[in-house]
Amino acid sequence: MRRLALCLAIVVGALVAASAARADGPTFVTQFGQGVTHGAVRYVPVSVYPANRTDLVTISTVDGSAGQALQLPGQWGLPAIGSGAEGLSRDGRTLVLGQVAIGVTSPSKFLIVNPVRMKIVRTIVLRGYFSFDALSPNASRMYLIQYTHGKSQDLTHYIVRGYDLRTNRLLPGKIADRSEDEGTMAGYALTRTTSAGGRWVYTLYQKPNGGAFVHALDTVAAAAYCIDLPKNRGLYNIVLSMRNGGRTLAVHWRSGRPWLNVAVGTWRISYPRAGIPWTWVGAGIGGGLGLLAAGALFLRRRRGQELQEHARQQLGLA
After folding, report:
1. What is the pTM of this model?
2. Strand, helix or coil at 288?
């Protein structure tokens, strides 16, 4: 019955809150869905209508059963990029929720939750137009996207800001690539991947002019690098993944077909080629040589038999 009630709440809530859980510029604020996972527990925010409440529900990844639920006044959702939800720290003890709204609103509100204790830690209220971007591995720092033209609902121009979760204050300045002269970034986030330890966050953005770039964010050193990529009409089918022990950022199609590689640290782009399957070639050469040797031996034996038969006939022994 508990699982049935949860399913009914999700279905009813989805019908009435579908317009609220929508894209919010370069990032998303979403309810329902797969949520975020840590260990054997999945956390899913569920809108409870018409109570104007959000239940943060725990769901077992083993059998799908529902566990504890934290009731949150108002509508809150998980920030996400692409099809994956964000906001959970590496140790699973800090979860960031964003206020669900149509477009971006000011002030911007975030909820910090300890999902292990199922307890609200604090509410963050910021003047201006912000959305969640990333967390440092130890959850001491949160990174936010500030929309510089948010008042006009222009979500294509923004900067990255740091927020100290220990001192509870917005840090001055912006997190930007020092080699870039642009005052703001521009584009829409499509997909992202994170390094094994959670320090580096790589996000693929599409520019308004059709170009693309990868935003590499060092969440420990509070540094960023922008890597411009060639234009590609199929960016929505592109995904990112880490290769070579985290030394290479692979940019490839969902099918696995490679497009290009980015060397982490130097940020140089290279184009992988479909290498010749030398193992097969070697096997083919070896097999061919074997066949040639067998054929030569067969001909040698055949010729020897013919010579012996000819000699017998000359001696009248045949």
Report:
1. 0.76
2. helix
